[in-house]
Amino acid sequence: MLSPTCRTPLGVVGLVCLGVLVGIAHGATTVYVQAKSAQLRDQKTSLGKTVATVQFGDALEVQRQEGDWLEVRTAGGDMGWIFANKTTPTRPSAAAGDSSLARLGQAVRQTEAAPVTASVGARGLDKVSEEYATRSGIPKQYQNTVDRMAAYRLSDQEVEAFLQEGRLGEYAR
Question: Which of 33, 100, 160, 173 is most buried as measured by Cβ atoms within 10 A of its Cβ?
């Protein structure tokens, strides 16, 4: 049995060590990117300037959290804000990023759009869709309406305001 004078210093040392461990564990939270890639922004908004791009599985050190946004530091020292749902507290497995579904999605994204498909965004219905609509008896006025809707453009600020007001995407609660 330890004497009372010996127990007190050991107790103090034990409490100090425990406090340091808790401080380290609490202050240095690591999260991992769970999206294929994500941007770190200079502000807590998707319209903020991109300061760095991070990839699936990258470790990020959380500096602080404000709402659904995390201020993080990359292994390379870049600092920025990321929407919390793009991260996970556990390291994602490499297999999750290389699943057959993920590979299929990557293959689709890597193919180029055919000229007919690419024209849809600029002009409205492509030729195949237009011919189908005509054969199906869809009136020309409805086809023209689709063309007008496809030609309508919104600014980034209008989209951001819509998401905020509707509590959608990163503003969902």
Answer: 33
